[in-house]
Design a protein that fits this description.
The chain has no helices and 22 strands. It is mostly beta strands and 286 residues long.
Length: 286
């Protein structure tokens, strides 16, 4: 059913739990449909939406959340921003707030000289989860995650960039590269399978590659990624699999939902082993 409300569009959301905030995102359209990204998992459709001039309530089933009831978010519009309440899967009442997601237009850029993000130590990186096992190291000039453990976050932040990386992984592994810490480029052992929103080279949940160009496990892959505003181009093993596609919003597991700010690239370590022998980053020339 079509809806008339000033709350249509995309929203960058922060949910406040006593143990720490986590980012989320949602979108409402004028046809009465919507989609949502939560603390983890992929984007999913919103099941019910009730929107008035300054009040909003929506609900959707759990995806990976350990709960049997629907997730319900209610909020009000105050000075162009949304504030509301919901309940965590552990039963904890939580507040949330959301601001309109920025447009982030695509611009023409000239790339500067690349620099390697793989040094002789991990001094330029930090663990995402200090309480998780940390299995990242520099070995023979390569950046290695030996087994499931903490993600690895670059200390520096970037806005627009070009990233050239070479990586491999053992059979059955799963990893990812989070651009600005918000948009996951999937790394997955799925050679020979059909492309989906969760396959190799996908922007997880949002953008399906034109083909699956990944190589078999234990072989080196060459991936080139350009991110300008919301617009991403990905070439995997010489095949352009994503061509200037718009990323609608953050993917599950993002560091934050502050899409208008520069962000810190991070490498997923909590799903499986992966080895990078090249991570070269270029920024636009001023």
């Amino acid at each position: 059913m079509p809806i008339e409300t000033p709350m249509t569009g995309r929203w960058d959301m922060v949910v406040h739990h006593p143990d720490g905030d986590f980012p989320s995102w949602f979108e409402l359209d004028r046809e009465g449909a919507g989609r949502f990204v939560g603390q983890f998992g992929s984007v999913r459709p919103i099941k019910t939406i009730h929107a008035e001039t300054d009040a909003l309530k929506f609900g959707l089933p759990p995806q990976y959340e350990p709960r049997t009831d629907d997730m319900v978010f209610s909020g009000i519009l105050i000075d162009g921003a949304l504030k509301g309440a919901t309940t965590h899967f552990d039963g904890t009442p939580m507040s949330w707030n959301a601001t309109r997601a920025p447009e982030l237009p695509k611009l023409d850029v000239v790339w500067g000289n690349p620099r390697s993000l793989i040094g002789t130590s991990l001094e330029d990186w930090r663990p995402r989860s200090p309480n998780q096992e940390f299995n990242w190291s520099i070995s023979e000039g390569m950046l290695v995650n030996s087994k499931v453990g903490s993600d690895l976050v670059l200390k520096a932040s970037h806005r627009d960039f070009r990233l050239i990386c070479e990586y491999k992984y053992p059979p059955g592994s799963n990893s990812g590269i989070y651009l600005r810490g918000r948009y996951e480029v999937q790394i997955l052992d799925d050679f020979g399978k059909e492309s989906t929103w969760g396959s190799s080279g996908a922007i997880y949940g949002f953008i399906v590659p034109t083909v699956n160009a990944i190589k078999p496990a234990n072989e080196w892959n060459l991936c080139e990624i350009e991110l300008i505003g919301r617009w991403v181009t990905i070439t995997l093993n010489g095949t352009k699999i994503v061509d200037q596609q718009e990323i609608p919003g953050i993917t599950g597991g993002a560091l934050d939902s502050n899409e208008g700010d520069p962000g810190s690239l991070f490498l997923q370590g909590d799903h499986g082993p992966v080895t990078f022998r090249r991570l070269d980053l270029s920024e636009p020339r001023s």
